[in-house]
Specification:
This protein is of the alpha/beta class and about 260 residues long. It is about 40% helix and about 5% strand. It has a 4-stranded parallel beta sheet with strand order 2-1-3-4. The longest helix is centred in the first third of the chain and has 14 residues, at about 20-30.
């Protein structure tokens, strides 16, 4: 069996520097489970609009971190093919009097907790007081367009890319009728192949940032021994907000600063 054309066509969203490795990864999947990709091509899955490999838009040589979440958001408007970048989110801040984060951010639990983690790491919120009036006060300062805060999720994504983040999911697809861990296991040969190529070709060995139990599957792959790793609970856990390892990693990057 050959790789389905619709899957290969999705490679057009990736930077050309990745294409040979991505094809090798897909070939590894075909060798491990020959019927998986053909069945996927005939199924409905997220992300739509050929965004399966959208995360690989960052050229290979610019990768400094590989951040791996669990899977795409389970909503068509939210799943972008880029880890936890919710396509339904525009503004980060509520425009309501006394509001904090915007409603779309609050709906995207992982993104909400990531935002709060950044604010705690930066000293703008206290670890034990990240909601209500404290959050509203931060948002009021952030809404001042003459201030120092970024305004949109697109700006945050750009800042992460500028830091060299490849924003991946452990499973590149979400299907409502398939357990996420099952899809994630099917993509393991892909990740093993692609990450081995990254380790061999990168000018600087990237750091793996693994979020959640499904991402932990990847830490068991032999190739992951070639990378430094930082492991944390998934951001949908409230404890993520106070994770000291995440504070240490992200605080110097000033992702919320314009």
């Amino acid at each position: 069996m050959t790789i389905p054309i619709s899957i290969l066509d999705a490679l057009d969203r990736a930077d050309a520097s990745w294409r040979p490795l991505l094809v090798q990864g897909l070939e590894a999947m075909m060798a491990a489970t020959p019927d998986y990709l053909p069945q996927l091509a005939d199924d409905q899955y997220l992300p739509t609009e050929q965004r399966l490999f959208a995360a690989f838009a960052l050229p290979l040589q610019q990768v400094r971190y590989v951040l791996i979440g669990e899977g795409p958001y389970p909503r068509p408007e939210s799943a972008t093919g880029v880890c936890f970048m919710d396509g339904a989110v525009g503004s980060l801040w509520s425009d309501e009097q006394g509001g904090g984060l915007s409603k779309p951010v609050n709906k995207a639990t992982s993104l909400r907790n990531f935002m709060k983690m950044l604010l705690v790491a930066d000293g703008q919120l206290a670890p034990d007081n990240t909601a209500g009036e404290a959050m509203a006060a931060v948002a009021a300062r952030a809404r001042d367009k003459s201030g120092s805060h970024i305004q949109t999720l697109a700006e945050m994504q750009q800042k992460l890319i500028q830091q060299g983040f490849l924003l991946l999911n452990a499973s590149l697809v979400f299907r409502g009728h398939v357990a996420p861990v099952k899809d994630a296991k099917a993509w393991l040969p892909f990740f093993e192949t692609v990450m081995a190529g990254l380790a061999a070709q990168a000018s600087v060995t990237p750091t793996m940032v693994l979020w959640g139990k499904i991402a932990e599957l990847l830490s068991k792959l032999p190739v992951m021994q070639d990378f430094p790793r930082i492991v944390a609970e998934h951001p949908y856990n409230l404890s993520f907000i106070g994770n000291q390892d995440m504070h240490q990693l992200f605080q110097p990057m000033q992702l919320l600063k314009r």
